[in-house]
Amino acid sequence: MTREEILQIARKAGSLIEAAQEKDLLWLERYTELAITEEREACALMVDEYMKETDDILARGCLASVAYDIRARSKK
């Protein structure tokens, strides 16, 4: 997520982001990235659970691929 995208969300949430100092913007960027990473991992864990619930080998492979792709988005 780009800084501009983060700032747009902050504005939608009612923040007066234009008055923020650079250190606050850096904190906001870091916070956002951590929150996104946590949410992605929660999603990947849900996919892992679905994978455990099926005996279909093709479905398991597809679900494993989806979980991998979700986690990979946080490593870019």
What's the structural domain tally?
1
Low-confidence stretches: none
Biggest sheet descriptor: none
Range of strand content: under 5%
| Rg, nearest Å | 17 Å
Report the principal-axis shape.
elongated
Order of helices and strands: HHH
Helical content stands at: over 70%
Structural class: mainly alpha
Oligomeric form of this entry? single chain
Question: How much is the average pLDDT?
Answer: 94
Number of strands: 0
Distance between the termini: 11 Å
SS element count, helices: 3
Tell me what you see in this structure:
The protein is mainly α and 76 residues long. The chain has one domain. Helix content is 76%, strand content 0%. The chain has 3 helices and no strands. The protein has helices spanning 3-12, 22-52, 57-73. Helix 2 runs antiparallel to helix 3 (57-73). The N and C termini lie close together (11 Å). The model has no long low-confidence stretch (mean pLDDT 94).
Task: Give a brief outline of the structure.
The protein is an all-alpha fold and 76 residues long. The chain has three helices and no strands.
Task: List descriptors.
mainly alpha; 3 helices; 76% helix; 76 residues; elongated
List the helices and strands and how they pair.
Layout lengths: L2 H10 L9 H31 L4 H17 L3
Helix pairs in contact: 2-3
